[in-house]
Amino acid sequence: MSWFTKTLTSSIGRKLMMALTGLFLITFLIIHASGNLQLLANDGGKAFNLYTKFMTTSPIIKTVSYILYTSIIVHVIWAILLTRLNVSARPQKYEYDKLGQSSTWASRSMMLLGTIILIFLVIHMKTFWFVYKFGEIGMVTYDGVEYKDLYTVVVNAFKNPLYTGFYVVSMVFLAFHLAHGFWSGFQTLGLNHKKYTPLIKTVGLIIAIVIPVVFAIQPVYVLLFA
Amino acid sequence: MNLTLKVWRQKDANSKGKIETYPVTDISSDMSFLEMLDVLNEQLLEKGEDPVAFDHDCREGICGMCSLFINGRPHGPQNATTTCQLHMRKFKDGDTIFIEPWRAKAFPVVKDLVVDRTAFDNIIQAGGYISVSTGNARDANETPIPKEIADQAMDAASCIGCGACVAACKNASAMLFVSAKVSQLALLPQGKPEKQKRVEAMVAQMDKEGFGACTNTGACEAECPKEISITNIARMNREYFSAKLSSNNT
Amino acid sequence: MNLDSKIPEGPLAEKWTKHKFNVKLVNPANKRKYEIIVVGTGLAGASAAASLAELGYNVKAFCFQDSPRRAHSIAAQGGINAAKNYQNDGDSVFRLFYDTIKGGDYRSREGNVHRLAEVSVNIIDQCVAQGVPFARDYGGLLANRSFGGAQVSRTFYARGQTGQQLLLGAYSALSRQVAAGKVKLYNRTELLDVVVIDGKAQGIVTRNLITGKIESHSAHAVLLCSGGYGNVFFLSTNAMGSNATAAWRAHKKGALFANPCYTQIHPTCIPVHGTYQSKLTLMSESLRNDGRVWVPKEKGDKRKPSEIPENERDYYLERKYPSFGNLVPRDVASRNAKYVCDEGRGVGSTGLAVYLDFADAIKRDGRDVIEAKYGNLFEMYERITDSDPYKEPMMIYPAVHYTMGGLWVDYNLMTSVPGLYALGECNFSDHGANRLGASALMQGLADGYFVIPYTLGDYVSQMPYEKVSTDHPEFKKSEAEVKAQIDKLLSINGSKTVDQFHKELGQIMWDYCGMSRTAEGLTKAKKMVQELRAEYWKNLKTIGSNEELNITLEKAYRVADFMELGELMIDDALMRNESCGGHFREEYQTPEGEAKRDDENFSFVGAWEYKGENEQAVLHKEELKFENVKLTQRSYK
Hints:
The complex is a heterotrimer of chains A (226), B (250) and C (637). Chain B has 250 residues and is an alpha+beta fold.
């Protein structure tokens, strides 16, 4: 193995990969959540559909999206690598374990939370991304230009209380994942400082609450008001 | 007070162990936890049973030899306290107390509550030192070291190498232990010349020993009897990345 | 037997320099042909093993703990002395020498002590270079504190964990040599016997504490760095595993045991509070820098300390010793605590404690300053006693802490058995009848880093490269003997546990050979120890086999040696018809109750020769010559 692969598969390297991809995914989430707010524009979906078109055609955004897909895959693979290492490090468990007292549930449950989020992601992609790219989708015309009508797909999906319920619950798990993940990413990168760490932790908590809430508002809004 | 002890008994490294139950009576609240175990062992011996083997030496909280996973936590319920400094006044009459050895692949059980922690020695041997032979030193005051740096180095250096961090970590990671030594030596000017080589070698050895990786749960810091901070882990990570990116060691 | 201390001729300050030039050297290429055994990995052992390996010798290092880093040097709290004079307060090598000789009540060798003071400055340099994080001032330079028995501030420290930091420094140097393949480490391995062939120490027999395997190791020289024998008393500040087996077995193989009665009772320990107590915890002497020692003026005053007004308190150390006050040497402080408790003015539930009060210091400097200096000690005190020393005065009482006596060694640190060396607390050489605070760390590291690397070559250079085979009959004989002893211990099948015997021994020693001694008590104690020892071999209860981790067997083997050593301590105390330092015979005191030396008749090192089981040990005397200091009655008034 070269120094490079050795580094990335070392215990610290595994964490590094999680941190880098994780923090990148958080920036994506911020953009995604704010962009999706256009669902609430009350304009019959025009803003949302225009935005969707831009996001799927702009060369820059397309490039970023490939990095995004790679990040998700790397984040998942390295999570598996990391978890395998960590499980193997304690072959025999304690008979009586109260370690919950010394760390948060989220920090101990990142793999579980991540798995749930991954399942959510697959369903989410299937409902929207797959349909938009490969499925049958209606068309709308604004100002003489034809657009794929993702808005209707979204509204139809969210009109289903089960789907919206699943969506909202998944966001709760995302919240916990972010609550540990944001701060943890900085810690892994070595960015721990008396002055800045409290700020990072606060920002992390805000992100962990605001992003899932913004995501969850959309289906709930559609379900109740659209 | 009277207590029920649930103690891990294991004849030797190759045997399968199990929890045994022992009642102990007339325990004074002024006893240390290990003195309570001494009482148990005297009882066992008088009955002709094998006493419980556990590691201990200085009994003043500094040698790092005592261990014990007590009621689900390394070194028991009192924060910032080693098992030998834990006193029975922290328990109540009638309590049931679970006592287990550290659990980690890198710390195999030797007998009962005794585990083998030579993995820690191996990590220090990999690079936890400054290469200065006896007689090579210059005057101690020739290099001033800012008080704050010296204090930070001392904070890290106060690690007693007991392994509670490994025991507490859900991943049985040794990063708090390793980072404490890496930090101490990387902070001090004397340690800088070989800091890259040191962190690379120590982390490689740590991985080789079979410890898990850090997932920043912070349990190590919370359970460390010397309250070593996980800022040391962040510092080690920094040192590690910069060494990996810039050292000539391919 | 002629005890030749081999102190070099010439002026005091030139002896060591001259000696270093005169000792034979071993060519660097030849050093790798020699193998050296180091028993114990505390400050002396780890520093010696590392330094010798750096020079090129092949070293085998042994410790009974699971790691060399656990050795009990780690527990030293307060600091390490060095004549750096960084504080510009008039310190010098000669002053450190003088303080140490005087503190030792003029019962140590001038040559050794001066050498110790000389190399003290190198130790600090070495430790700082290793990364020991000593306390510093804001300018980034090293800080000092003052310690008992000195009027200069020369003690370097790393919070209340100086021993730990120095040991970890030596441990790191040792680890570096292990990695380099120059030191082979044997942890959880205990020495059971020293092997002497053709009059020279050429190996040891050990037991693997996990498997029980008895093994022989041969070498060109054997260094015992196995610490002191304070655990003879059962209750002491020593670690639970600290034992005298290495030194005692060496003694039985011909090494003389010097001044065994010189034991140091440390004044500031947490008082005993129950029969189940397994050890005593020291509170650093540095506390006496700011704490004031007092008891009520009235006997049996059971009021809370806060309710006792200032004028009804007796700050007895400040009263009796106005110039040193609370910073008198340890033996003086301990003895005075005993006096006030004997008068019935002791405090606490047992009446065997005195107050160490920080109220004035907190008022003067503020709680923050006191917390920064002693925070970790205060926390430790509170954990153990459940009382907060920021609010209530600490209660302290003297406890066995250090043994100044040990294997007799010459200036080269060689015992009376050629090839067998003793370093650190294991030897007797530098502290006389009383050790000053912060000097044990200094001596351990001096011996290991700066003395043995020079003096070992003088002997080893004359040895053939070929080391003796472990198949040699002497090894086989030793192995058979230790196996027989183990079998015997395991087969007595009596009814008393090792701890019960050990506690009884400790009680006898504390009562009759502790802080103060009388001929009558000692005579009685000797008989009691003999009886106890006889009972030990008839009525001991052990369990299990040799071929396993057997904690009862480990203790039983150690306590067997403590029993014999205890008797020698009594012999020595009985022989020494004077009071000096830690040895206080009630018959020999000044009208003020201070130790009264008899320089005319007892200015010698008492070195005992083993003559066989149940035989009276034979005393040899090494006269102490004082050419540079004038013997005076120690005065700290």
